Amino acid sequence: MIMAASQSNGPILRLECLEKRFGGVAALQGIDYEVPGGVIQGVIGPNGAGKTTLFNCISGMIEPSKGRISFEGYRIEGLAPHKIARFGVSRTFQHVALFKKMTVLENVMLGRHPRTRRGFLAAGFRLPGMRAEEEHIRKKAFEYLDFVRLAHLAGLDAGTLPLGKQKMLEIARALATEPRLILLDEPAGGLNMRETEELGDLIQEIKKLCVTVLLVEHDMNLIMDISDRILVLDFGKVLASGTPAEIKENSAVVEAYLGMESGGILM
Amino acid sequence: MGKKNWLILLGTAVFICSFPMLVMKIKAVSHYVDVMVFAGIFTLVCIGLSLLMGYAGQISLAQAAFFGIGAYTSGILTTKFGIDPWIAMPAGMILCGLVAWMIGVPALRLRGHYLAMATLGFGVIVNIVLAEEVNWTGGPSGMADIPTLRIAGYKITSEIAWYYLVWGIVFCALIFCLHMLHSRVGRALRAIHEEEKAAECMGVPTSRYKVRVFMLGAMLAAIAGSLYAHYVTCINPSSFSLMWSIRFMLMAMVGGMHSLWGALVGTVLMTFVGNEWLGMFAEFEILVYGSILLVVALFLPGGIVSLASMIARRREKRASALEDAGP
After folding, report:
1. Beta bridge partners of A19
2. B39 touches chain A (CB under 8 A)
3. Is the pLDDT score of A267 beyond 50?
4. In A98-178, which ranges are continuous DSSP H helix?
5. Which of B176, B184, B199 is nearest residue A116 as measured by Cβ atoms?
6. B273 has pLDDT over 70
C-alpha cells in the first residue's frame, strides 16, 4: 500500500525573481510564482517559453543565473540533482530517459535509491540487513508498478516497451523516490487518445497521494481538464495564471496563442 | 547474485582447482602454474579497472602505479621495519584508497576524460619517485629479499601453494564485486552507465559513486601489488610503468569490460600471450599489442565474453527462422 505523503499548509514551491541566461539569451526572466501544496499545477506556453528550463532549474540539472527556489521552505537552487531528489522533488523527462537495458522492475527499484542507504561494503560483504533491505526495495517497487498497472511486465527490458508504457514506467520510477513534488515534462507527448485518458486518470490518482504535480503539457484538453491552476509562460515571463476557466477567458493568453497557432486551441 | 553467475563461478572454480593437476603431469607446460600465479595477480588489478571502464565509463592509466604502491609498501614495511606482511598488505590498500580518493574527487566531478589525464600524470610521477628515492626504494635496480608470506607459521614457498592462495583471493574479490553489482549499488552503477542524468535526478550521487569505484580498483591493485612483491621477492620500477597500465587496460578490454568475467578471461589470456607466446616478437611486442587493441576495438567492442551471447543470439535467430519457414 502506497502511503499518502503528509501535507503542510502554505506553498510547497516558491519561485522568486528566477532568471536563467544562456549567453545572451534569457530563457527565464524574473519568474515570481508560488505553487500551493496538493494541487495539479499546469504550466503552458508556446515553444521556447522556458517551461523545460524552469523544470531543469527546479530539479537541479541547471543552475539558475539569479533568484531563489524554495521547496517546503528550504532553498534548493543550485543544489546537485541527487540532493534535490532526497528533499522530495522528482521528475520525468520530455524525451524518455529510462535505463533501457535494465528491467522494468529494476528501473523502479533504482527509484528507491534516495530512500535506502546501504553502500559498497555492505553490498559486497552481504552484511546483515542487506538482504532484507533488498527485499523491501523489491516489494516497494512492485507497489509502484501496480500503481501504474505495469506489474505484469516487470521482467522485461525497459527499452522493449512501447512508448506509452515507457512514459508510465518513468512516472512509477519517479514516484518510487517518494516525492512530495513531481515534475511531469510532456507526459502525453506521443500518446494516443486512450493512453492520454489513462494518463489523466493516473495524474489525478497521484494527486490523491498528496503529491503536488507540476505538469508541462501541449495537450490542451488534458491540461484544462485536470489542472487546478495554470501558469502561462511566454518568452521566459509569467503571462498569466489562474484556474483553467480564467485562463480560457484571458485575452493576453488567447492572443499569444492566436498569434502563433490556428487559434481555437483553448476552446 | 543470480543463478547464472553462481554457475559460471562454480565452473571457473572447478577449472582453476584442477588446472595444476592437469599441467603438472606434462613437463613441457608444467611452468604454466607459475604463469597462472601472475595471471591471478593481474586479474585482481583488472577487475577494478573493468568496473571503472565498464560502469563509470572512465579510464584509469594509474593501475600500474597503484599496483606499484602496493608492492613497494609491502616491500619497504617488511624489509626496513620488519612489519608482518599481513599488516603491510592492508596498509598498502589504505594508502592506495586514500590516494585514489584525492585524485578522484576533483577529476571525477567534471564530465569528460579528466581522470585519464590525471592518472596518466600520476602514474608517471609514481614511477619517477620509485626510481629516484634510492634510500627507500633502491632506485632503478629495485629492492630484493622481500620475505615470502606465512600462514599459521608455515612459509609459503611452493608455486602450488602460491597458486591456490592467489586464486583464493581472486575468488573472494570476484564474489565481493558480484554481490556489489547485484544490489542497490550495482543498480546505481548500471544506471549511471545508461542514463547518467536520469540516475542523478533519481537521487544517485553519480560523481561520488565513480570515485568509490575508482578507489575500489586502486585498493584491489594494492592487494595485487603486495602479493606480487612477496611472490617474486625482488621488485623494480619497470614492472610498474605506464606500459603496464596500458597492458592492464588491454587485458580488461580484450575480455570485455562490461563483465567481471571478461576481466578474468582477458587477463588470463593476455598473460599467456605476453609471457609465453609473444617471445618471438621480442622488441616488436608493443606492435602486436597495438594490433590486438585495434582489432578488438573495431570488431569485438564487447570483448571475448560477448562472443558467447552473440552465438546464442544467432542460434536463436536461426531457430525462429526455421519455425517461420515451417508449415
Report:
1. A29, A66
2. no
3. no
4. 104-111, 120-124, 130-147, 163-176
5. B184
6. yes
Interface membership of B189 toward A (CB under 8 Å): no
Least confident of A118-127, A170-179, B74-83, B220-229: A118-127
B323 contacts: CB under 8 Å, gap ≥ 6: none
Contact list, A114 vs chain B (CB under 8 Å): 202-203
| Residue A252: per-residue pLDDT | 85
What's the rounded Cα separation, in Å, for the pair A219 and A188? Answer: 7
Which chain B positions have a beta carbon within 8 Å of A155's beta carbon? none
Asked if A124 and B190 come within 8 Å (Cβ–Cβ), the reply is: no
- Confidence band of A139 (pLDDT split at 50, 70, 90): very high
Task: Give me the DSSP letters along B57-73.
Answer: ----S-HHHHHHHHHHH
Write the CB contacts of A75 (distance below 8 Å, at least 6 apart in sequence). A68, A69
Q: Is A41 on the interface with B (CB under 8 A)?
A: no
User: Cβ–Cβ of B185/A97 closer than 8 Å?
Assistant: no
- Which value does ipTM take for this structure? 0.90
8 A C-beta contact, residue B149 and residue B85: yes
B37-90 confidence digits (pLDDT tens): 999 999 999 999 999 998 888 889 999 999 999 999 999 999 999 999 999 999
Q: Chain B window 213-242: which residues touch A at a Cβ cutoff of 8 Å?
A: 216
Mean pLDDT calculated for residue range B303-324: 79
Nearest CA in chain A to B211: A120
Contact B160, B33 (CB under 8 A): yes
CA distance A111 to chain B (A): 6
The verdict on B205 touching A (C-beta cutoff 8 Å) is yes
User: Cβ separation of A82 and B203 shorter than 8 Å?
Assistant: yes
pLDDT for A262 beyond 60: no
How many CB atoms lie under 10 A from the CB of residue B260? 26
pLDDT at A3 over 70: no
- The cell for A127 is 552484511
DSSP class of residue B235?
B
Q: Which three cell numbers stand for residue B118?
A: 590525471
Q: Which residues of A31-42 are buried (b: 16+ CB within 10 A; e: fewer)?
A: bebebebbebbb
Mean pLDDT lowest among B27-31, B84-88, B175-179: B27-31
A262–chain B nearest CA distance, Å: 36
Most confidently modeled range among A75-79, B223-227, B234-238: B223-227
**Neighbour-count burial for A158-183, b at 16+ CB within 10 Å, e otherwise:** beebeebbbbbbbbbbbbbbbbbbbb
Name the residue of chain A whose CA is nearest to B213's CA: A120
- The residues that bridge with B126 in the sheet, in sequence order, are none
Partner A contacted by B6 (CB < 8 A):
no
Which of A50, A37, A36 shows the shortest CA–CA distance to A5? A37
- pLDDT at residue number A263: 45
Q: Supply the pTM of this predicted model.
A: 0.90
Give the sheet arrangement for strand A25-36, strand by strand: A25-36, A11-22, A66-71, A74-75
Average pLDDT over residues B11-36: 88
